[in-house]
Amino acid sequence: MLTTDQKGNIAELAIAREAIALGIEVYRPVGEGGRYDMILALREELLRIQCKWSPRQGDVIIVRCYSCRRNRDGLVRRKYLPGEVDAFAAYCPQTERCYFLPYSAFAGRSQVLLRLAPSKNNQAEGINRAKDYEFAATLAAPGAVAQLGERRRGTPKVTGSSPVGSIF
Fold first, then answer.
1. Which of 103, 102, 107, 99 has the alpha carbon at shortest distance from 62?
2. How much is the pTM?
3. pLDDT of 140-160, one tens digit each?
Protein backbone atom coordinates (compact mmCIF):
# COMPACT_ATOMS: atom_id res chain seq x y z
CA MET A 1 0.00 0.00 0.00
CA LEU A 2 1.40 3.38 -1.01
CA THR A 3 1.63 6.24 1.46
CA THR A 4 0.10 9.62 0.64
CA ASP A 5 3.62 11.02 0.10
CA GLN A 6 4.42 8.22 -2.36
CA LYS A 7 1.15 8.82 -4.23
CA GLY A 8 1.92 12.53 -4.43
CA ASN A 9 5.43 11.86 -5.74
CA ILE A 10 4.08 9.50 -8.43
CA ALA A 11 1.45 12.06 -9.44
CA GLU A 12 4.01 14.88 -9.68
CA LEU A 13 6.35 12.78 -11.83
CA ALA A 14 3.54 11.64 -14.14
CA ILE A 15 2.28 15.22 -14.55
CA ALA A 16 5.78 16.59 -15.22
CA ARG A 17 6.43 13.82 -17.75
CA GLU A 18 3.16 14.50 -19.58
CA ALA A 19 3.81 18.25 -19.68
CA ILE A 20 7.36 17.76 -20.98
CA ALA A 21 6.07 15.36 -23.65
CA LEU A 22 3.76 18.17 -24.84
CA GLY A 23 6.74 20.56 -25.07
CA ILE A 24 5.87 22.49 -21.91
CA GLU A 25 8.70 23.63 -19.63
CA VAL A 26 8.36 22.42 -16.02
CA TYR A 27 9.95 24.16 -13.02
CA ARG A 28 10.06 22.85 -9.45
CA PRO A 29 10.30 24.81 -6.18
CA VAL A 30 13.53 24.40 -4.21
CA GLY A 31 11.75 23.72 -0.91
CA GLU A 32 8.74 21.70 0.20
CA GLY A 33 5.62 22.94 1.96
CA GLY A 34 4.40 25.58 -0.48
CA ARG A 35 0.86 25.65 -1.84
CA TYR A 36 1.92 24.59 -5.34
CA ASP A 37 4.09 21.70 -6.53
CA MET A 38 5.43 23.00 -9.84
CA ILE A 39 5.31 25.81 -12.35
CA LEU A 40 4.40 25.23 -15.98
CA ALA A 41 5.59 27.66 -18.63
CA LEU A 42 2.51 27.62 -20.82
CA ARG A 43 2.82 29.79 -23.92
CA GLU A 44 3.71 33.23 -22.49
CA GLU A 45 2.44 32.50 -18.97
CA LEU A 46 3.85 30.87 -15.83
CA LEU A 47 1.20 28.84 -13.98
CA ARG A 48 1.43 27.63 -10.37
CA ILE A 49 0.22 24.03 -10.37
CA GLN A 50 -1.00 21.92 -7.46
CA CYS A 51 -0.63 18.22 -8.35
CA LYS A 52 -3.16 15.67 -7.18
CA TRP A 53 -3.37 11.87 -7.06
CA SER A 54 -6.94 11.37 -8.26
CA PRO A 55 -8.44 7.89 -7.99
CA ARG A 56 -11.16 6.48 -10.18
CA GLN A 57 -14.36 5.40 -8.46
CA GLY A 58 -16.75 3.77 -10.89
CA ASP A 59 -17.26 6.10 -13.84
CA VAL A 60 -15.73 9.19 -12.20
CA ILE A 61 -12.30 10.48 -11.30
CA ILE A 62 -12.27 12.37 -8.01
CA VAL A 63 -10.02 15.44 -7.90
CA ARG A 64 -9.75 16.70 -4.33
CA CYS A 65 -9.20 20.46 -4.24
CA TYR A 66 -7.85 20.70 -0.71
CA SER A 67 -4.80 19.76 1.31
CA CYS A 68 -4.68 17.64 4.46
CA ARG A 69 -2.12 17.96 7.22
CA ARG A 70 -1.88 16.46 10.66
CA ASN A 71 -1.38 18.65 13.68
CA ARG A 72 -1.88 18.16 17.41
CA ASP A 73 -5.67 18.47 16.99
CA GLY A 74 -5.84 15.78 14.29
CA LEU A 75 -6.35 16.01 10.54
CA VAL A 76 -6.76 19.54 9.16
CA ARG A 77 -8.32 20.09 5.73
CA ARG A 78 -7.68 23.32 3.89
CA LYS A 79 -9.13 24.44 0.56
CA TYR A 80 -6.95 26.38 -1.85
CA LEU A 81 -7.65 30.11 -1.88
CA PRO A 82 -7.56 32.49 -4.85
CA GLY A 83 -3.98 33.53 -5.54
CA GLU A 84 -2.41 30.37 -4.06
CA VAL A 85 -2.56 28.23 -7.22
CA ASP A 86 -3.48 28.84 -10.85
CA ALA A 87 -4.58 25.29 -11.68
CA PHE A 88 -4.84 21.72 -10.48
CA ALA A 89 -3.15 18.93 -12.40
CA ALA A 90 -4.52 15.50 -11.56
CA TYR A 91 -3.03 12.07 -12.26
CA CYS A 92 -5.39 9.09 -12.26
CA PRO A 93 -3.45 5.84 -11.81
CA GLN A 94 -6.32 3.71 -13.15
CA THR A 95 -6.54 5.58 -16.47
CA GLU A 96 -2.83 6.52 -16.49
CA ARG A 97 -3.80 10.00 -17.73
CA CYS A 98 -3.24 13.53 -16.52
CA TYR A 99 -5.95 16.18 -16.31
CA PHE A 100 -5.67 19.98 -16.16
CA LEU A 101 -8.27 22.00 -14.24
CA PRO A 102 -7.95 25.80 -14.13
CA TYR A 103 -8.51 27.12 -10.61
CA SER A 104 -10.85 29.83 -11.91
CA ALA A 105 -13.28 27.19 -13.21
CA PHE A 106 -13.51 25.39 -9.86
CA ALA A 107 -12.73 28.08 -7.25
CA GLY A 108 -14.00 27.27 -3.78
CA ARG A 109 -14.87 23.65 -4.58
CA SER A 110 -13.64 20.90 -2.28
CA GLN A 111 -13.66 18.35 -5.10
CA VAL A 112 -14.34 17.99 -8.80
CA LEU A 113 -15.76 14.89 -10.43
CA LEU A 114 -14.56 14.09 -13.94
CA ARG A 115 -16.88 11.68 -15.73
CA LEU A 116 -15.42 8.88 -17.83
CA ALA A 117 -18.82 7.70 -19.11
CA PRO A 118 -22.21 9.37 -19.59
CA SER A 119 -24.36 9.67 -16.47
CA LYS A 120 -27.02 6.98 -16.03
CA ASN A 121 -29.83 9.55 -16.24
CA ASN A 122 -28.30 11.11 -19.40
CA GLN A 123 -27.71 14.43 -17.64
CA ALA A 124 -25.40 16.57 -19.75
CA GLU A 125 -25.54 20.01 -18.12
CA GLY A 126 -23.04 20.63 -15.35
CA ILE A 127 -21.10 17.46 -16.18
CA ASN A 128 -17.29 17.61 -16.36
CA ARG A 129 -16.22 15.08 -18.99
CA ALA A 130 -12.75 13.73 -18.21
CA LYS A 131 -11.64 13.81 -21.85
CA ASP A 132 -12.29 17.57 -21.98
CA TYR A 133 -9.69 18.08 -19.22
CA GLU A 134 -6.95 15.72 -20.47
CA PHE A 135 -3.58 17.42 -20.86
CA ALA A 136 -3.51 17.02 -24.65
CA ALA A 137 -7.01 18.55 -24.93
CA THR A 138 -6.32 21.53 -22.68
CA LEU A 139 -2.61 22.34 -22.89
CA ALA A 140 -1.66 21.63 -26.49
CA ALA A 141 -1.65 24.71 -28.69
CA PRO A 142 -4.39 24.76 -31.32
CA GLY A 143 -3.14 23.94 -34.79
CA ALA A 144 0.27 22.77 -33.57
CA VAL A 145 0.37 19.81 -35.96
CA ALA A 146 -0.53 21.61 -39.20
CA GLN A 147 2.51 23.17 -40.82
CA LEU A 148 3.32 23.96 -44.41
CA GLY A 149 5.77 21.59 -46.04
CA GLU A 150 6.71 21.29 -49.68
CA ARG A 151 5.75 18.65 -52.24
CA ARG A 152 8.24 17.47 -54.85
CA ARG A 153 6.73 19.76 -57.47
CA GLY A 154 7.05 22.78 -55.19
CA THR A 155 3.45 23.37 -54.01
CA PRO A 156 2.71 23.65 -50.26
CA LYS A 157 1.18 20.76 -48.36
CA VAL A 158 0.26 20.22 -44.72
CA THR A 159 2.66 18.10 -42.67
CA GLY A 160 3.00 17.22 -39.03
CA SER A 161 5.16 19.08 -36.60
CA SER A 162 8.37 17.58 -35.36
CA PRO A 163 7.87 16.15 -32.84
CA VAL A 164 4.09 15.77 -33.14
CA GLY A 165 3.47 17.04 -29.58
CA SER A 166 5.47 20.24 -29.98
CA ILE A 167 3.43 23.37 -29.33
CA PHE A 168 5.98 26.16 -29.50
1. 99
2. 0.79
3. 765 444 343 444 455 545 444
